[in-house]
Amino acid sequence: MISATFLDTLKYLYFTRPYNTMKLGLFRIENLLSRMGNPHSGVKYFHVTGSNGKGSVTTFLEYLTYHHGHNVTGFYSPHLSTILERFHYNTQNISQEEFVEAAFEVKKHAEEMDKLGEEFSPSFFEYMTAMYFYITKKKNAEYGSVEVGLGGRFDSTNVIIPEISVICTVSLEHTNVLGNTVEQIAFEKAGIIKEKKPVVVGLMADSALEVIRQIAKQKNSKVYEYGKDFYVEPVQFSFNENVYDYYGDTTIKGIKVRLNGKHQLYNVGLALKAFEVTHRINEKAVKKAFEEAFIPGRFEMVNGVVLDGSHNPQAAEKFAENLDLYFPGKRRASVFGIVDDKDKEGVLKVIAPKFDLIIVTKPPSKRAEKVAETYEIAKRYNPNVILEPDYIRAVDLLKETDEDVKFVTGSFYLVGYVRDYLLNGKISEELTIGGA
Fold first, then answer.
1. Burial tier of 428 (Cβ tally within 10 Å: 0-12, 13-18, 19+)
2. Is the N or C terminus of the chain more exposed, i.e. has fewer CB atoms within 10 Å?
């Protein structure tokens, strides 16, 4: 049951702290946290950035910490079905009451800053970050696992001094903000490296890796590189029960991982290495952590439908790979919807040929008006395409098809709303308030 106070708090946040407004720089969050008594201090943090994989690595580190007997909070973005997914305590979403309390505490200080002018008014994400630190202090958590929102150097999470930093991957993304080359983007992500604090680095272009090495050297930070200092080998790929062997300072064999996809191999290694560098490892706790670690809407089956976002060509490549990996030789149908500012052609040319039937729909977003355009592009890559703009009707159509496996993919807006519908038979009031 959603409380009226929770809904009122959401309305305040969505309508006074515009959701998609980005403000770079650390002076607002530093000012806000200072007014709050610096609730981020005195906690051991894992700080994770990357073009891909950062959500998984942050999740794995939270579960590893919890299963090694510590109180830990997690901070994630964006959310899928409820804003509470952004804030974890010991691997669970916080409650509506805890969310409201944290929002009210931040509000007092944020509104004082609003009076100083637009430049000083905290953004939505800065507000969320301050709430996370308040929750962490209130819970008296020993550890925090923190996912960077965007980039690293000027991200509002970059006020922490972590035990260790993790840079998962570097590829061209958010070029309007982070730069037009992988070297520039690597520089921004390496901004989370702190003086004499180690950094774990995933596979990436040599030019990006060299930028990170140079910054680490300037910061007197030891670098641990995937493939050189640690690696992971796959043993078995099976839906919801993948098995890997880890080789680092410790060797751990037969790690069952619930999260699906070949790419998780690297994320498992990055998380384990970061934890291994900062904490004594218990093999039983490690196995329990990876067996339980979960992220909604990431190649997840809900009531017979597999949900996953394929919102850019890189994600589409992984999605297509997973189709062949987990469902070879099966007849497949999918509902697909994507927002207009994404690379529709780049996504559909990868995934459309993988389906026997595609139902093109409109994600619940103001940024998804050109559904007819999406339909025309899909028809270029698949002869069996249906247009059904209403995403609820599209899902109902999907459920009636005879194909062996059914999917919903494309925009995370679509995946989030459909997940809510499949679980509850309706769309929650929270999602309708937040809009997209």
1. middle
2. N
Place of tokens 């509104």: 111
Give all strands (DSSP E) within 158-265, no chain letters.
164-167, 199-201, 223-225, 231-236, 242-247, 251-257
**Domain termination residue (choose one: 259, 292, 325):** 292
Q: Are 158 and 26 in contact (CB under 8 A)?
A: yes
Judged on CB neighbours under 10 Å (0-12, 13-18, 19+), 211 is buried
> If we measure between CA atoms, which residue out of 160, 165, 191 comes closest to residue 39?
160
Query: What CATH number is given to the structural domain containing 381?
Result: 3.90.190.20
Pair 121, 245 in one domain: yes
* Pair (136, 200) in one structural domain: yes
Last-in-domain residue among 256, 276, 292: 292
What would the pLDDT profile of 21-73 be if each residue is shown by its tens digit?
A: 677 789 999 999 999 999 999 999 999 999 888 999 999 999 999 999 999 99
- Closest by CA to 283, choosing from 264, 259, 256, 262, is 256
Instruction: Give the model confidence (pLDDT) of 310-361 as tens digits.
Output: 888 888 998 999 999 999 999 999 999 999 888 899 999 999 999 999 999 9
- 336 in Cβ contact with 378 (< 8 Å): yes
End-to-end CA distance of the chain: 22
